[in-house]
Amino acid sequence: MIRFEDVSVTYDGAAEPTVRGVDFTVPEGELVLLVGPSGVGKSTVLGAVSGLVPHFTGGTLRGRVTVAGRDTRTHKPRELADVVGTVGQDPLSHFVTDTVEDELAYGMESLGIAPDVMRRRVEETLDLLGLAELRDRPISTLSGGQQQRVAIGSVLTPHPKVLVLDEPTSALDPAAAEEVLAVLQRLVHDLGTTVLMAEHRLERVVQYADRVALLPAPGAPLTLGTPPEVMAASPVYPPVVDLGRLAGWSPLPLTVRDARRRAGALRERLAATETPTPTATATATAAPAPSPSRPRRPRLLRKRAPVPSAALPVAAVEALAVRRGRVEALRRVDLTASPGEIIALMGRNGAGKSTLLGALVGLVPPAGGSVRVGGAVPHRTAPRDLVRRVGLVPQEPRDLLYADTVAAECVAADGDAGAEPGTCRALVSELLPGVADGTHPRDLSEGQRLALALAVVLTARPPLLLLDEPTRGLDYAAKGRLVTLLRALAADGHAIVLATHDVELAAELAHRVVILAAGEVVADGPTAEVVVASPSFAPQVTKILAPQHWLTVTQVREALA
Length: 561
Ligand SMILES: Nc1ncnc2c1ncn2[C@@H]1O[C@H](COP(=O)(O)OP(=O)(O)OP(=O)(O)O)[C@@H](O)[C@H]1O
Ligand SMILES: Nc1ncnc2c1ncn2[C@@H]1O[C@H](COP(=O)(O)OP(=O)(O)OP(=O)(O)O)[C@@H](O)[C@H]1O
Hints:
One of its GO terms (cellular component) is ATP-binding cassette (ABC) transporter complex. Keywords: ATP-binding, Cell membrane, Membrane, Nucleotide-binding, Repeat, Translocase, Transport. It is found in: Cell membrane. The structure is a single chain. This protein is α/β, with parallel strands linked by helices. Among the domains are: 232 residues, 3-Layer(aba) Sandwich (Rossmann fold), CATH 3.40.50.300; 64 residues. It contains 23 helices and 19 strands. The strands form 4 sheets. A 6-stranded mixed beta sheet has the order 6-7-8-3-9-10, with helices on both faces. Strand 1 and strand 2 form a beta hairpin. The longest helix has 18 residues.
């Protein structure tokens, strides 16, 4: 159904092809997962299927790509639209209409599908993706994950023969990601749909793949195999594979269920070692002294009482209520963050995580209750003063970057922060060695842009650092570097609050997890205790080794050493 014959793509101005000699076939009714480190050309391969490469991106494509027999070089993307549905990395650039319902119908309208069929499919898709309550909402008012659901829904409604998906679950909460993948699998099994999907969070997707295509390094040949074959040698792999390799399991398990069946002996060995402490990973490097009054048990479904802390809190939120349009986005939220503490804010799409971060930087005013950051009330504090107290790296780092070059961005950041000239540039060099002054932020990779936005925010050395979905689009290596950096910042006394759907990141990094549901705090406690209590938010290692309380492969490796 999809066929690559010796394909190379060279972007304009590039000395070398981005991908070369790509040669593989995806038969009808198969789900193939495309994996590899950041920047190896996964999006480029996907773009060659939908025709975006080279028609929209420019550059030269050599060799031949055919989809359902049509050559994508001689057929423009719109001439492929009846067979290929595409979801790109940035849902916002994808939308053509204003409201959820119109967007779901749009693709079908342009293909001339009968009105009664359209109506039925829109209803089905609204239910399938949990969008029914949002059907009349302007898309611009949706949360990041809600937008990603609409983007996926809008390509499903026309029932294309081929789906090309670039990180379709990156903004979805864990339960929604599972639901979307189950829907895709049903389309593949029941309708014979062919799916080619790139994804970094392999723990979410690898078990759904019929085969895995690996681009191991830039310019290296693509290899195709069964998931266990490819995972045995891949430079990117999920925690279940990491644990399997550590324990020497063969064949490698790819699912929690398979790994649990093998884990008996490992559990016994681990039982003889010291049981991990609730914040073992975090305490290994940079935890604040645990305050004796910090709650030891998650307070599921109970209102959290303010806890007096040894260190004066950097942020104190009390009984906060926030309205966004007609929506009560936050209700009765209490939260404190102390110096050196890393807090992961988790919860379903639309639960209010970004809104809470927005309230902490004064972007959204409270409708009730109070927010104090370093003693100031954020929405009443002048930006110049506020940047020295709190900084937010937004879900889309691009939203923070306005200048045409990295150097100009840094000069502006120094000015805004009242910092010594050169402060931001020094941070960029530390975080992003080798990036030239003249580079346009637009041409940076996702991970590089995140690092630049982080440097811009850190220029003012804010005691409170907020990050919204910081691991979107990052590969495991980049995530590892981010973890090291954030731990060092916490050790330096910064309080860090991150909104994330990445349960593996929370397990690795956070001292505390706060779960929001429908605008309210439903759990707040040490990471191990909160995630162990919740199947949705438990990392793979926890599920595999339960009832023991291990969170990460790093902990297990250290215990066995
Ligand atoms: N339109 C373009 N013009 C020039 N260079 C590009 C263009 N699109 C991508 N590139 C470059 O091609 C390389 C591969 O990018 P691509 O987005 O295909 O990688 P990827 O594997 O999808 O990465 P990620 O996992 O970070 O999304 C990168 O170095 C990128 O900078
Ligand atoms: N401008 C707006 N008008 C109306 N409702 C809004 C607006 N902005 C956000 N909302 C709603 O407020 C709720 C909270 O949104 P928020 O972005 O805080 O969620 P989130 O937990 O960060 O979600 P996600 O995980 O999807 O990023 C959602 O139901 C969202 O649709």
